Amino acid sequence: MRSLHQLLQSDVATLHQCTKRRPTDVLQMPCCGDRCMETLSLNDITESEQAFKMSLNEIEQGHYILRQITQHSYTYHGKTRSKLIMNLVIHGRRVCEVAWCNVHDISHRRFTKYANQVKLGVTNISHGNRGKKRMQEKTSRAISWMRFHFERIGDFMPHKNIVRLPTFMKKCDLWELMKTQLMEKEFYSLLSYGYFCDIWRKHLPEFRTGKSSDFAECDDCAQIRNAISSASTDAERQNLLKVREIHERRVETERAVYHNAREKAVRQPDDLLVIIIDGMDQKKTYFPRLVREKKNTENLGKVPMHATGSLIHTNVPEGKLAVMRLDIHNFPHDSNMTINNIMWNLVDNIDRLSRQLHLQLDNCYRENKNRFLLSFASLLVEYDIFEEVVLNFLPVGHTHEDIDQMFSRVSTALKKTNSFTMQELMHNVHESYTPAIKVQEVKYMFNVKEWLQPYMAGRFGGHSKPHNFRIRKINGRARMHYRLWSTDAWQPTYEEDGEPAQGLVCLETVPDVDDVPDMVEPSLLKLDLQKLTHDIPNKYVDYMPQQTVEHLRDFMGNIEQYGQVAEQADEWPLQQLIEAARRQRSARVTTSGDVPPNVQRIQDWMESVCPPVIVGNQGNQATEAEIVEDFSTLDVGMFVAVFCPDSEEVPQIGKVVNRDDTSFTIHWHYGTWNTAWKPCYVSKGRSKVPWEDRQDLAAAILWDFKLTLRKTLTKQTRSILQKKYERLQSQI
């Protein structure tokens, strides 16, 4: 059995090992004038510090200090202020504050903090970080990845404030995908599957995945999901996962076409105008609509409203304009509805017409993806309203875009506010979204389908498969190209005879714009007029103001007029658009011609072409008529500058169409010294043909020169022509 001295030496050794302090050194620490430290023994110091440091955590230590100060102190209230008087004790021996702190190895600052809490009456303490939730870096990184990836592959539901992920995506698959992509970037601190599901539930509840979706499912997604669920080997499952990843990237690429076009339209409004059009869920828009539907009104007659929404992306403060047009199902919802919406949107933004129009539409063949809409897009190019029209269709099951988010906001707002009449419904729709929605009632509709049909170029087929269509003018006619995906090449590439394809002509001839189409005849056959006439004026009396009831009675009394053709409609939109496009083209030419000299020098330097490398007689270079006496190098397809003494306009430039030994045919181009050169066309009947002329070979003064990427003259070509025209004009 060990002696008391041995036990004390063992405790001192243990204390020295844990606290790195020797008790003998503690005894020598200074304190107060009473030398309190000299009254203590080594055993007092060892037991006090060991009990305080080795058996208590930080919170328990705080409670111990607070309790000792409270038990061995009292408050002295003086005339001017109060003071805390402390009589601290260690093993029955009275010590000062400094000695007590020395023995327990705590700082004077920490002791003072607890003494001040005693003055304030604090009896319980907690850790400083208690209640604070700090997000770990791996959690923050995972949330960022999940939000970014989910928004790219998900579809915004128009009637709910949620984003629906593809039905074939499971949480475990997304977790595996996240681990794979983060591991590629050397992020080794990964989440477990359980924690992944927890942060999804807590931080990203708006993203949903499940076995079914509220909307049509992509055929590819369904086949991939079924194949993965029935895969018998790991190798087969891994191959299917790669196929699914390819499909996801393809859908993301198609979405990026629309997203990139939106950004470009905001930044370059003269070059691009983007319009997305879609229809809203018909079950959400009707009147009278009560926020809290009563049992007596739940099955009463209600006037249904069909809503067609549009978002016009252009250079406005909000980046887009919102429009919604309503009808009471008295007009057919076919391609006429889409075409009229396009025309109305363009007329409403007639000062914002651009060179190119991008239309983002749904895959519905009845309203959008049909021969009538493709022919109408060709007509916009034939009338020179736009230089190019692009139609983009997302894959089936992935067609939900920003316009569906607008529909979601409208649906949410209508649930919170009563809409007794059509006017109240339109007002609530107007206030439901930012920017405010421009709401219009459809009172008439032009029958563009029947108007265009005689001019179409025969039967259309196979146009339901491609997702991209492009229509632009080639040789004076609007020609259509198509492709299945945005990463594919435009088709057709070659004609049957092997020549490069110019594209498909949708319109055999161009209709006269002055020939205004008839109006679509409305119909009320889709409305249950007998039920509406009986319920609305009589059954809603107890649930709405009397003034509103009278308004609804007037509406039902005059509802027959919604089935009649409008007596007078606005001006035929295409006539307004043609005139506006002509004015804007003139304004662009005028503006582009006024280029300051310093800007022109920068443009010339940036767009300068590489000079030809000449080895002996090899290499192309611009040929001047004064250098050679024969014109054998003047060939078809070359740009040529000519001098016509009877014309004062210079330069005179065109392309060689054909030639013989004495003359050549030139296709004239229009432009100036500093602006782009474009082909000239003239009207011939209802079509436009290239403006061609026959010139003698002697009229050519420069040929085989190149234009810049912006179709302007290079600095070298401009300098040569200016000198030649000046010399030739001086000889007249």
Q: What fraction of the residues are assigned to beta strands by DSSP?
A: 15-25%
DSSP strand tally: 26
The overall pLDDT average reads 83
Overall structural class, as computed from helix and strand content, comes to alpha+beta
Strand count, sense and closure of the main sheet?
8 strands, mixed
Question: Can you give the helix content as a percent range?
Answer: 25-40%
Radius of gyration: 41 Å
Poorly predicted segments = 1-18
How would you describe the shape? extended
Count of DSSP H/I helices: 21
Task: Identify the strand order in the major beta sheet.
Answer: 15-12-11-8-13-14-16-17
Taken together, the total number of domains comes to 4
End-to-end Cα distance, whole Å, is 135 Å
Give a structural overview.
The chain has four domains: 4-119, no CATH class; 137-252, no CATH class; 268-573, no CATH class; 597-730, no CATH class. The chain has 21 helices and 26 strands. Strands 15-12-11-8-13-14-16-17 form an eight-stranded mixed beta sheet, with helices on both faces. Strands 18, 19, 20, 21, 22, 25 and 26 form a seven-stranded antiparallel beta sheet that branches. Helix 10 (219-229) runs antiparallel to helix 11 and helix 12 packs across helix 19 (573-593). The longest helix has 34 residues, at 234-267. The N and C termini lie far apart (135 Å).
